[in-house]
Design goal:
By secondary structure, the chain is an alpha/beta fold. The protein has six helices and nine strands; from the N terminus they run βββαββαααβαβββα. Strands 5-6-7-3-8-9 form a six-stranded mixed beta sheet, with helices on both faces. Strands 2-1-4 form a three-stranded antiparallel beta sheet, with helices on one face. α2 crosses α3, α2 packs parallel to α4 and α3 runs antiparallel to α4. The longest helix is centred in the C-terminal third of the chain and has 16 residues, at 158-173. The radius of gyration is 19 Å and the shape is globular.
């Protein structure tokens, strides 16, 4: 559903320039769950912004089949309605859905992200995990076929991480195309069909999660999660 060819992006600085994306090629198939790993500043979010049409590349091509719904790391910045019900309705209302269709879309989206009981709750007071689920619900209400999650586990506790992952599992069952951008691969790699690593603006790995775990991930500033914890001494990075 997504094809990226030779994408480059350079930012000018007061003392020179920095190449944020360097000749990136990437394909994402329909219904695929892709995890893009990389350290902070590796180019993950920038690449996804270009794919979603929020940024322009200096050169290269991007083709997408269907809208891309991007859930930002700070999901709160995407909240436009006073309540989850109002927030979810915003997108499909602007798409011109009639009243009955709109109500059904909102109800279905609330149900899918398990927020029905908080439909009229003040959206700003939802937990971090609930706000991310709300942002995803907004994409679902617009029937967005491609959903990209930018650092979806940032500032979430254990329960919040589990909530987000359960929702990702449900999206996979619905054959949504899912892209997860994260440096915390230990929290989601088991959900991935494919694993890509960006490092300093370059794509340095693209294969299965199983093959990815055989790589020297620390070389790309990613901690390999295949470690054994047997004592308190092991519980340190």
């Amino acid at each position: 559903m997504i094809e990226v060819k030779g994408v480059n992006k350079t930012f000018k600085l007061f003392n020179g320039s920095i190449k944020a994306l360097d000749n990136i090629d990437l394909k994402v198939n329909e219904g695929e769950c892709l995890v893009i790993g990389g350290e902070n500043g590796s180019g993950k979010s920038l690449l996804m912004s270009i794919i979603a049409g929020l940024e322009e590349a200096d050169s290269g091509q991007v083709k997408t089949e269907g809208r891309v719904g991007l859930v930002f790391q700070e999901a709160e910045t995407q909240i436009l309605g006073e309540s989850p019900k109002e927030d979810i309705a915003f997108g499909p209302r602007n798409l011109g859905l009639k009243k009955e269709q709109l109500a059904q879309r909102v109800e279905d989206a609330l149900n899918k992200v398990s927020l029905t009981s908080k439909a009229d709750f003040p959206a700003r007071f939802l937990s971090g995990g609930e706000k991310r689920r709300l942002a995803i619900a907004c994409m679902l209400s617009m029937d967005t076929p491609i959903i990209a999650l930018d650092e979806p586990y940032a500032n979430l506790d254990y329960g919040g991480v589990k909530q987000v992952n359960e929702l990702i599992k449900e999206l996979k069952k619905e054959n949504k195309t899912i892209i997860i951008l994260t440096h915390e691969i230990e929290k989601c790699l088991a959900l991935a069909d494919r694993f890509v690593v960006l490092f300093r603006g370059k794509k340095v790995f693209d294969s299965t999660p199983q093959e990815g775990l055989k790589q020297n991930l620390e070389e790309w500033n990613i901690r390999n999660p295949l470690v054994t914890y047997t004592s308190v001494k092991d519980l340190i990075w």
